[in-house]
């Protein structure tokens, strides 16, 4: 049976965390381009420049005209991002394409199947590996509320606690989870000469009807360009049913219990390919959640088994994608309704309806603090555990 095609994720919309997307190096020389091993630099006099791993054109600011022309000739809905290239054998022998598994061996040129592009290949490859926070000042601002608990007169143990709230207009952010695109080099012709013909194919594929199609197409084109020096599109022979199967997200519900019991239930139907160190991550999350007494644990089924979380109230669910995610999401909507959505639409509403906690230093403390406040707001928790009065007693 042929391998099932994969379709590109649509972006998740929410969040308010931003990371620098590149590192820069100061230069004071005139416009220049020089190489140190496989790393290339290009800059103008006195400016800052971004390290460049390969000598070819990095990416496009907009979809190139030759791709638009090719799209006009494609009748189907599903698009495959791929391109062929005449590759110098010496470049393969020197390891120029080794990051994609295209290498030279004693028996000839070899490939290693689909490979995850390295994050340092370029801006779009980094977003593919780590996600992307896009502030949308062109979208209408929305109101977002924060609720927190503060001690009365500086001493909650003696004087009690008060719930306070803060609401303000904020810009919406468009959050793209790590997309997990892969590139597979396929040798089409190798006659033993100085050059060979290689096809570089990117997965997943794209649907013209998906949200943000133009942006996601530009993203996929640039990931291929950054890693191979070529890019393009072809018609896909996948069916609509195969596409639908890649976006349907069904959930399994598991009852609460001890950490060992919950982990055993969750692992009973796990696929090894769902996420690296899946058992370790699940056990860590269960230990983090159990102190807040979740009413149920949730997990995606089948190929979406890396989606995992816990439900604490009808309108409070915490979840993440353990395979690609670098953040935890707190969803503040009716779970009975939200659980029926596809993975493309799960976080499609305004970002006022959920929060995103990025996996940076101290993220567990930020998550537990936020979760505590949301539970307290719903009358499910009295006060922060472990509070110590700062007032001196006589």
Brief digest:
By secondary structure, this protein is α+β, with helices and mostly antiparallel strands.
Q: Mind explaining what this structure looks like?
A:
By secondary structure, the protein is of the alpha+beta class. The chain folds into two domains: about 25-45 and about 60-130 and about 175-245, no CATH class; about 250-375, no CATH class. Helix content is about 20%, strand content about 30%. It is built from ten helices and 20 strands. It has helices at about 65-70, 90-95, 125-130, 155-160, 215-230, 240-245, 260-265, 280-290, 335-340, 365-375, and strands at about 25, 30-35, 40-45, 50, 80-90, 105, 110, 130-135, 140-150, 160-170, 170-175, 180-190, 195-205, 235, 250-255, 295-300, 305-315, 315-320, 325-330, 355-360. Helix 3 packs across helix 5 (about 215-230) and helix 7 packs antiparallel against helix 8 (about 280-290). The longest helix has 16 residues, at about 215-230. The protein is elongated and about 85 Å long. Mean pLDDT is about 75; it is low at about 1-50 and about 385-394.
The shape is elongated
Helix content: 10-25%
Strand order of the largest sheet: 15-16-17-18-19-20
Q: What integer value in Å does the Rg equal?
A: 25 Å
Q: Supply the number of helical segments.
A: 10
Number of strands: 20
State which percent range the strand residues make up: 25-35%
- Unreliable runs: 1-49, 385-394
* Mean pLDDT over the full residue set: 77
Helix/strand structural class: alpha+beta
